[in-house]
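Field guide to reading this record: the first block holds the primary sequence, the second block holds the structure written as discrete tokens, and the final block holds curator observations. Each block starts with its own label. This record concerns Chorismate mutase, catalogued under organism Streptomyces globosus.

BLOCK 1 — SEQUENCE
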Amino acid sequence: MSETVGNGSAPARLAGLRELAEVYEPGGPSEPDELDRLDEQLIALVLLRVREARGRQLDRRASGLPVSPLARENAMLRRYGQALGREGTAIALAVLALSRQQRPPGR
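BLOCK 2 — STRUCTURE
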């Protein structure tokens, strides 16, 4: 039985993602080293996003505004969910949680 989430079944979305990945992989399927490189890039991008979000939170707090605009967070959750399904929503929630931590991730 195939689970339907977001824009079609999870297996269909994964097949579509695999096809997209093949378009961007000039050498064909990724080797483990390439996957490691991609993981490092993802981590760096998440940390960059977390730093940016924290800076905005400090600015909003200094201006007397709520730390995080809920409409923006909800839009992010929808965007990740539409692109990646339920798993994407979980990723977005994890990124938001990292952004709310008082200390930098990984320390």
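BLOCK 3 — OBSERVATIONS
The longest helix spans residues 32-62.
The chain has a mean pLDDT of 80.
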